[in-house]
User: Fold this.
Amino acid sequence: MGCVPKRHTSNHVYIKEQFSISCETSKNEESKVRSDLLIEELRLSPNHSNDEFSKNKTKSGEIPLFKRRKSSTRSIKITNENIITLQKAPVESKYKIIEKIGEGSNGAVFKVKHKENGSIRAMKMIKKKLITNTNNNDKKFIKEIDILIDAHHPNILAIFEYYIDENYYYIITEFIDGIELYSTIVQYKKFSEEIAAIIFSQIISAIKYLHSKHIVHRDLKPENILVLKPINDNLSDLSSQFYIKIIDFGASNYYEKDQPLKLKIGSPYYIAPEVIQKQGYDEKCDIWSSGVLLYILLSGIPPFKGKNPLEIMNNVVLGKYSLKYDLFPGVSEDALDLISKMLTYNYEDRISADEVYDSPWLQKFRTKKIDSLSSNISKNDEFSKVVNNIMKFNAEDKLQQAALAYMVHVHEYTEETNKLKQLFFILDKAGNGRLTYMDLKTGFEKILGKLISKEEFRKVIEDIDMDQNGFIEYNEFLCSSLNKRKLLSEKNLQIAFANFDQDKKGFITEGEIKNIIGTTEDLYFDELNQKIKLEHEGLLSFNEFKDLMLLILVKENK
Assistant:
């Protein structure tokens, strides 16, 4: 791997040396090129909406699940914005620092422990003074928090919450127990086509998902991808052995069709030529970067080399690379054909994320994986039990949905979630990290071996589709499929209640509930009073919250 840039790596790398190009929109920043130590885990900000782009976030061109019934509070949407919020208490009251993971120009990243429940998480601590002194003030961080909140996908790092005090921003995310894809490449030198396809299909699924939400990443590279520590010791379970997550969105942005991007940003080995030339580009710059990644996975070396960043970028602009046999011995023509299509110089002629996913090479290995997983399903009734649980899912109450969404969001990766991720993969025919009505219906009918009526399925979908965007997102799928008796444990209920009880007075107030479910209307509390008897008007105690949540189990027990 002599051609890959050398740097220090470790088992938990969140800080790394990167040559980053950032030409800002202001005139005095037009040609700025800088080399810096960057915090690679997240670049986030307080949660404010971006109205200019939010209207485009859910554009996908796909057909919604169904026309939703009108009913009192049923129109209230439960989204990640309901559960990922600015916390009022000081961060030190909730988290204990275990160790510093790394440090960069704007702050540091720590491994931290939640004081109440013992959860291990990552905390990025950002120097507010340095950020607010930049031309963009807080806008960059606002944008990045919006993107991370919007991007709930099995291969994208999850953000939990954030804090602000006089001097710092604090971003709490899941702690990834694993190593960089860069380190994995160094270890393996290069991968078999099967393993490369497993890694690459996850990357493309995440990119396809981002592009469906009009988000462009702009800095895909092995240093921004972590390979999780395997959840089991089964070496034949390659999906578990090479489960990846994209961890950095510092260069990401929303985009609109027919409005070319101009910001010159990225990393020399992976940046697309049109980004360097600043003649306008679109989301297909991510396809170029992905093509470079696939090239490295299969050959062990980058397609564009150089003695320094400037020389590398000059070679990228030239666009000349080799697919000779001695670089790819034994690699199939389908794989090489896909690389060439992704590294098409003119981005207007370059294939899209949809076309990459549908390519013969990826589909060959996807079919093989689905056949293997489907065989495991047919050998036991474990997945049938999961589907039956989903069909019995009964959480139409909005606070129930928000609490489930929160508990699932902070749920640790386990063997159970690993199996559910495999089922989600089988059902996700489009490969974009979200399920349609027909994905679920046809998949469930195949697993159960019987037809499901449209009316019966519509009611289930209404409860599962909490954000009412016409698709079942990964977190929504987990909400309905995880074992509810385990999920609704005393400990998890206490964690959720403590998170919702923002003023820490032992009750969830009416105002707090309105914030949680995202409404200003008083109607919900009237409905809540009909479900459970509230001892104190406008206040929900822990025992009352627990009673409400355990109502979910009633239908599953029938």
